[in-house]
Amino acid sequence: MTVTDEHGRPEPPVDGDELATLTGFLDYQRATLAWKCRGLDSAGLNATVGASTMTLGGLLKHLAFVEDDWFTRSLFDRERSAPWNDVDWAADNDWDWHSATDDTPEHLFALWEEAVARSRTNLAEALTYGGLDQPAKRTWPDGRAPSVRWILTHMIEEYARHNGHADLLRESVDGSTGE
Length: 179
Known about the structure:
Blueprint: H1 18-37, H2 42-45, H3 56-76, H4 95-98, H5 105-129, H6 148-174
């Protein structure tokens, strides 16, 4: 049984095995991002703080890209899918951040939710071939390949870092605070 907190976030298991603990913390961080972005219109998702150009909408789109990049491209060495495969990344390495201002809240949430669903499916597929120690199919330029464990841990770090940004951005929009 999954226990959720007052914001609908699934609590990571306190006595789970390594995989359950890692995926539990990743799902908790994913749900934190959803909580921070939920209920906002386009203006709210496009609000910035101070000199930064970062937005909650940009966070949703960036993390959708990161989900696909790690759990599809890196894990299986599969080509990028739409919309990522049509981007001239050399011309705008931050396209995921910048282009979010043109997207509706519904589109941004759908893009992110679909990426998360694909990531879960791809992780389950990878685990049918081996455990957390298995290397990703796509190697880094130096020939090394991160393990599935490394990818999961990196994704927890990626969300945790950006959820700190989301805290500040959401508070600037409507004063909402919390964790």
